[in-house]
Design brief:
The chain is an alpha/beta fold and about 350 residues long. It is built from 12 helices and 13 strands. Helices cover about 40% and strands about 15% of the residues. The protein binds uridine-5'-diphosphate (UDP).
């Protein structure tokens, strides 16, 4: 199959290309505005195009006309950006993605759309979040953090509506906190509201700075090894049953509070490096950390039975998930910029 991966230079795209080039699976054309994370990743089945798709709609149209499946990864995905630049988030994550969906319809191409587990919103549920039954509950409009989740939710609903009408074949996936090599970026000690939690805690381990527990750190997340996520992609892309369906990609076994994640990462770091971390754990309010307009999700537990029914299973446990990600960041080339 010929895949066009839009936003290939990010965390999910670069790991997906690594996974597919190592296995020689599919012919891949990838496009992005940066290929930093693609360094060292290559294969005869992969071509990279350096271009800004938002500024080159004719190029996007041409590339879409030439592929079999469009994999759409473009999005701002950090809560700090939703709070500080909500209109940029909606412009890129909603309007640009709609444009890509429309081009897929024009050329009769299948769309593989990355959405987010954030569409589930604020927990109003007990039990795990299910793709086809769980209500999606957003916070107030005046808390602009939800512009990301509601934009993705509306995108999903529009693609689904076109699917109902027979305009498009789609598969939508909702990632649950993927983690692994090439994740986000590291930051200086005491930086507030930068990348996502793993990268903040990893930066603290390297710099010796504090680990901030936003609103006490009792909120829970489960984390998915990026290679399990790439394996989920191949399960879905190869399976006709996945057409016009939505899937969670997650690993419920890794569920943890953010406070426990901080101490877990400290102990894993000590095991890997032999150096005992002495990071201070500091509680901080969400607004102080991210800015006014931040709200959080208390829990984001995935129901993965729908994807398991297609034969996929997350096979990398919590230890493997975090040790792979920590070890990658210990490479001096990766963290040189923050020291
Ligand atoms: N968080 C934290 N300390 C940090 C960064 C994040 O306590 O240094 C919290 C954040 O408020 C959220 C959780 O960790 O409750 C996960 O945040 P992240 O940005 O990784 O992803 P999210 O799942 O919220 O998109």
């Amino acid at each position: 199959m010929k895949l066009l991966i839009i936003g290939v230079g990010g965390f999910i795209g670069s790991n997906l290309v690594k996974y597919l080039t190592e296995r020689g699976e599919h012919e891949i054309v990838g496009i992005d505005i940066t290929d930093d994370k693609l360094r060292g990743i290559s294969g005869p089945n992969f071509t990279y195009i350096d271009a800004d798709i938002t500024a080159a709609p004719e190029l996007a149209d041409k590339l879409i006309s030439e592929c079999d499946v469009v994999v759409d990864l473009i999005a701002y995905a950090n809560p700090s950006i939703y709070v500080k630049s909500p209109l940029d988030v909606v412009r890129l994550n909603f309007f640009e993605n709609i444009r890509i969906a429309e081009m897929c319809m024009k050329h009769g191409k299948r769309l593989f759309q990355y959405s987010t587990s954030e569409v589930y919103g604020k927990s109003g549920h007990t039990g795990a979040y299910n793709e086809d039954h769980t209500d999606l509950i957003m916070g107030p409009s005046t808390k602009q953090r939800w512009i990301y989740a509601s934009g993705k939710q509306y995108l999903e609903r529009i693609i689904h509506a076109h699917g109902l009408r027979g305009d498009i074949e789609y598969t939508i996936v909702r990632p649950f906190n993927f983690v692994g090599p090439r994740f986000d970026y590291l930051v200086q000690a005491e930086t507030l509201g930068g990348p996502r939690v793993f990268a903040h805690f990893m930066s603290a381990l390297i710099t010796g700075g504090p680990m901030y527990l936003v609103d006490g750190g009792n909120q829970r997340r489960s984390f998915t090894h990026i290679d399990d996520a790439s394996a989920a992609f191949t399960t879905l892309i190869d399976n006709p049953a996945a057409i016009n369906q939505i899937y969670n990609i997650g690993n419920p076994e890794t569920d943890t509070s953010i406070r426990d994640l901080a101490t877990y990462m400290m102990s894993l770091y000590e095991e890997i490096t032999g150096v005992e971390p002495r990071n201070e754990l500091i509680e901080i309010s969400g607004e102080e950390f991210y800015g006014k307009g931040y709200e959080d999700m208390d829990r984001v537990p995935p129901d993965i039975s729908k994807l398991q029914a297609l034969g996929w299973q997350p096979i990398r446990d919590k230890r493997k998930t975090f040790s792979d990600a920590i070890e990658y960041n210990l490479d001096p080339e990766v963290h040189a910029s923050i020291l």
